[in-house]
Design brief:
The protein is α/β, with parallel strands linked by helices and 501 residues long. The protein has two domains: 201 residues, Alpha-Beta Complex (Aspartate Aminotransferase, domain 1), CATH 3.90.1150.10; 266 residues, 3-Layer(aba) Sandwich (Aspartate Aminotransferase, domain 2), CATH 3.40.640.10. Helices cover 37% and strands 17% of the residues. It has a seven-stranded mixed beta sheet, with helices on both faces. β20 and β21 form a beta hairpin. Bound molecules: pyridoxal-5'-phosphate. The site of pyridoxal-5'-phosphate has 13 residues, from α4.
Length: 501
């Protein structure tokens, strides 16, 4: 298969495959065990990496080893402060290197807990930077975090549809994007598109989108929340500079470093020459009682206050480890896993997989959403957890319009003769899916276990339905089995035990 997103491996480990296996084996939480409704205690299979990945052991080790030296990066004179400041600066360099962003032209800064904070900052800043441009173009595939911030700060947000695809809805429709760019002309501030869908895992052609956006004199922001951990990214240095990405935003907790901040990587000129959105310590050169002068130095001017130093170093450790293995190697492995998963899920008519499943035409990474026909998504999710120890997510994954469209598409296919209103009503009732999502530690065995469990659920749907009651939130609650988390872990319990020891 052609790896559209692969870049030439540079400086990766000579034994990338061995290093990848070493990283996989050591993710924290792979061996965790839970007691099930059947009374058995088994190893949990984690298929919820799109929400948050597990933490790599090396990330934990780096953070633990750093603890004795911890000091604030705003202090300068003592040893701990010097060490912290240097390593924190290196973490920024590592982000730029990981995304192949030219350090002369781009800056990386940490912000908030995840991608959401970064996209809000980008929306505020780009509106202030180019106030006359009051339209943002995004797509119907977006997570709410790459939609609502633009709605809040701009007069108009245009949602470009997905293309028809070979088997079902596919990538963003480039003709639709071009039409929107033409229609809104000079009013478009930027195009903001997800690199990889958090619902279907469909990969968007970000460099083609960049070329289009730049041809119309606008910018490209990539929501990289799901792209960073799965697909090699090259922000700059393309033969045709129009293919470069202007801004890329991602979350540390989705790339093997939970507890780390969100990250914005942007062209320096976009964040220069205007009042930063957040002000406070660390981002000013001088302050008088009646005025202050923000520093021109990036990333400092975008990082007001004491940063999340431990989290940032943990993130840098993850990025360095992944970079040493090579994102092209990781992507190649994942393409094979994705083919296996789509093949296995496609073996039974009882399972409907959403979005284009023809990966030769529409590449995917990270996530697959599906339903067992005739079984509520929340019941499937609950039974997978309680009876099979398989952790998935269900509902609409903060992408309500996209999920609604895909459910309607399948209903329209299956049920002839319904009016649009009837279809909409039915789609609303059935709105929701189950999502299985992968990390570097996900195995074919995990996927096979999922498929066997889904077959079992489909065959025994009435039996399982009888074991649960649906609460007013729509969740399926087991009538007799109860999970008491505090028996395994609680903060209070840990502190009490420590004090008593
Ligand atoms: C595509 C996409 N964008 C944005 C977000 C928001 O990320 P965060 O929760 O880190 O703010 C998510 C989270 O799932 C996502 O999948």
């Amino acid at each position: 298969m052609k790896l559209e997103h692969a870049f030439e491996a540079e400086n990766t480990e000579p034994h990338a495959q061995d290093s990848l296996e070493k990283l996989n084996r050591q993710a924290v939480g792979l061996d965790v065990r839970f007691k099930l409704a059947t009374g058995e205690t088994t190893r949990r299979i984690y298929l919820d990496s799109t929400a948050s990945t597990l933490r790599l052991q090396i990330v934990q080790d780096v953070i633990d080893k750093y603890q004795p030296y911890y000091a604030n990066t705003h202090s300068v004179v003592h040893f701990g402060a010097k060490l912290s400041t240097c390593e924190y600066a290196w973490a920024h360099d590592m982000v730029l290197r990981f995304l192949r962003a030219d350090p002369d032209a781009y800056t990386a800064f940490f912000t908030g807990h995840g991608t959401t904070a970064g996209i809000n900052r980008v929306a505020q800043t780009l509106r202030a930077q180019r106030p006359d441009r009051d339209v943002v173009i995004t797509s119907v595939m977006e997570h709410h975090s790459n939609d609502l911030p633009h709605r809040k700060h701009f007069a108009k947000v245009v949602h470009v549809p997905a293309e028809a695809g070979s088997t079902s809805m596919g990538r963003i429709n480039l003709a639709g994007l071009e039409a929107a760019l033409r229609e809104h002309g000079d009013r478009v501030n930027y195009v903001s598109i997800t690199g990889v869908s958090n619902v279907t895992g469909i990969i968007n052609p970000v460099h083609e989108i960049a070329e289009l956006a730049h041809r119309f004199g606008t910018l490209l922001v990539v929501d990289g929340a799901q792209m960073a951990a799965h697909v090699p990214v090259r922000m700059s240095g393309h033969d045709k500079s129009d293919r470069d990405i202007d801004v890329f935003v991602f979350s540390g907790h989705k790339i093997y470093a939970p507890g780390s901040p969100g990250v914005v990587v942007a062209r320096k000129d976009l964040f220069s020459g205007l009042e930063p959105q957040e002000v406070g310590g660390g981002m000013v050169d001088d302050v008088w009682l009646d005025r202050y002068t923000p520093t021109d130095t990036l990333p400092d001017r975008e990082e007001a206050g004491t940063p999340n130093i431990c989290g940032s170093l943990g993130l840098a450790a993850a990025l360095y480890a992944l970079d040493r293995v090579g994102m092209d190697t990781i992507f190649r492995e994942e393409c094979a896993l994705m083919r296996h998963a789509l093949g296995r899920l496609g073996e039974t008519d009882d399972i409907v997989v959403y979005g284009d499943t023809d990966v030769d035409h529409c590449q995917r990474a990270g996530a697959i959403s599906f339903n067992v026909r005739g079984v509520h998504h929340a019941l499937t999710g609950a039974v997978l957890n309680d009876y099979f120890n398989i952790a998935v997510r269900n509902e609409c994954f903060c992408a309500h319009p996209y999920v609604r469209e895909m459910i309607s598409e399948v209903l329209a296919d299956e049920l002839d003769g319904l009016s649009n209103d009837e279809l909409e009503e039915l789609a609303e009732l059935q709105r929701g899916m189950v999502r299985a999502s992968f990390g570097i530690y996900t195995t074919r065995g995990d996927i096979d276990a999922l498929v066997e469990a889904l077959r079992n659920i489909s065959a025994n749907r009435d039996y399982y339905a009888g074991l649960y009651e649906q609460n007013e939130r729509g969740d399926f609650v087991h009538k007799t089995f109860n999970f008491d988390h505090a028996q395994l872990f609680s903060v209070r319990g840990e502190v009490d035990a420590w004090l008593a020891a």
